[in-house]
C-alpha cells in the first residue's frame, strides 16, 4: 500500500509539473505519438539498410515468396523511383542462378510470349535472367540459356513440342509457383509451390529413367511426364552437400567430412 501511495503521489506530482510548465494533455499525447513514430521510422530505415547488405547471390532454401525478396546492393544508383525499382528487379533476377552465370548475364523482363519486353541490363554471355512477377503464378525469377529459352518460347506459343536442338538449362534457385505438374498449358488450376531447383530441358522418359513423376521437396522427378515437354527437374542446388578435397576423409555414410570433424557414434556404442 505504501509503494502504491508513493507511486500515485509521484504520478500526480509529474502531472502537476507538466501543467505548471504549460504542457496540456493534448500536447503530451501528441509528443508521445511523435516519439513512437520516430522509433518506427528508425526501425524501418535500419531494416532496409540491413536487407540492402544482401547482394545478389545463389538462391537459398525456402519458398519463392521469401527467397526471391531482394534489395539492390548498397551504393546502387537510384536517382529516381524507377531506377530503384530497376535495381531491385536486377538483384532479384540474379538470385535465381549461380554467380558464375548471373554476373555476365543479360537481365530482362519477358512478355507472355517469351520475348524480351524490357532489357534491364545487357550482358555478355548467352544467359538470360528474368526477375519474374511474384503476383503471377508461373512467373518466377529464373536464369536460362539460349536452348532453354527456345523451350520456353515454344511452350508460351502453345507449340505441340519444343524445338530446342539440344538440352537446355534453367535455374530457378528462388523456387517457383505453377498451375500443373502434368502440362505446361494449364493456366487456371490452383498454384503449386515448388522449392529451389534447376532443370534440364530435354524430353526425358520417366519409365526409361526410373524416376518419379510427382512433385517433391527433395530429389528429382520428371515434370510434364508423358508429354513432349517432359524434362528433368532437380530439387535444391548443384552445390548442396560437402565438397571433396584431397584431405577429405570418406565415411561409410558416403558423406564427405574433414578428418578432425566429430565422428558419429557407432551402433555398438549407442547400444
| Helix content percent band | 25-40%
Rg for CA atoms: 28 Å
- Structural category is alpha+beta
Q: Supply the number of helical segments.
A: 8
Percent of residues in beta strands: 15-25%
Q: Major sheet: size, sense and barrel closure?
A: 8 strands, mixed
Protein topology:
Elements: H1 2-20, H2 25-52, H3 64-67, H4 81-94, H5 99-102, E1 106-110, E2 116-121, E3 128-130, E4 142-144, H6 146-156, E5 168-172, E6 176-178, E7 192-194, E8 197-201, H7 206-209, E9 220-223, E10 231-235, E11 249-250, E12 256-257, H8 267-270
Parallel strand pairs: 1-3
Antiparallel strand pairs: 1-2, 3-4, 4-5, 5-8, 6-7, 8-10, 9-10, 11-12
List keywords for this structure.
single chain; 271 residues; alpha+beta; 2 domains; eight-stranded mixed β-sheet; two-stranded antiparallel ribbon; 8 helices; 17% strand; globular; disordered N terminus; disordered C terminus
Walk me through what this model shows.
The protein is of the alpha+beta class. It folds into two domains: 40 residues; 172 residues, no CATH class. It contains eight helices and twelve strands. β9 and β10 form a beta hairpin. The longest helix has 28 residues. The chain starts with a helix and ends with a helix.
Amino acid at each position: 500500500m505504501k509503494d502504491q501511495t508513493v507511486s500515485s503521489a509521484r504520478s500526480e506530482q509529474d502531472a502537476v509539473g507538466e501543467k505548471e510548465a504549460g504542457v496540456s494533455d493534448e500536447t503530451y499525447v501528441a509528443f508521445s505519438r511523435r516519439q513512437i513514430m520516430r522509433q518506427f521510422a528508425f526501425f524501418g530505415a535500419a531494416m532496409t539498410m540491413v536487407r540492402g547488405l544482401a547482394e545478389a547471390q545463389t538462391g537459398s532454401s525456402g519458398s519463392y515468396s521469401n527467397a526471391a525478396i531482394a534489395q539492390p546492393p548498397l551504393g546502387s544508383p537510384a536517382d529516381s523511383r524507377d531506377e530503384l525499382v530497376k535495381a531491385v528487379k536486377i538483384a532479384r533476377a540474379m538470385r535465381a542462378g549461380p554467380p558464375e552465370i548471373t554476373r555476365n548475364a543479360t537481365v530482362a523482363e519477358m512478355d507472355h510470349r517469351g520475348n524480351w519486353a524490357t532489357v534491364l541490363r545487357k550482358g555478355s554471355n548467352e544467359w538470360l535472367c528474368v526477375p519474374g512477377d511474384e503476383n503471377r503464378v508461373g512467373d518466377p525469377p529464373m536464369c536460362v540459356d539460349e536452348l532453354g529459352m527456345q523451350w520456353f518460347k515454344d511452350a508460351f506459343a502453345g507449340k505441340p513440342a519444343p524445338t530446342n536442338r539440344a538440352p537446355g538449362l534453367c535455374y530457378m534457385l528462388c523456387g517457383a509457383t505453377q498451375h500443373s505438374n502434368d502440362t505446361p498449358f494449364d493456366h487456371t488450376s490452383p498454384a503449386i509451390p515448388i522449392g529451389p531447383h534447376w532443370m534440364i530441358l530435354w524430353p526425358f522418359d520417366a519409365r526409361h529413367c526410373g524416376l518419379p513423376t510427382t512433385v517433391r521437396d527433395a530429389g528429382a522427378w520428371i515434370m510434364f511426364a508423358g508429354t513432349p515437354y517432359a524434362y528433368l527437374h532437380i530439387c535444391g542446388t548443384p552445390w548442396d552437400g560437402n565438397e571433396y578435397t584431397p584431405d577429405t576423409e570418406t565415411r561409410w555414410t558416403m558423406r564427405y567430412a574433414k578428418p578432425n570433424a566429430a565422428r558419429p557414434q557407432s551402433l555398438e556404442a549407442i547400444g
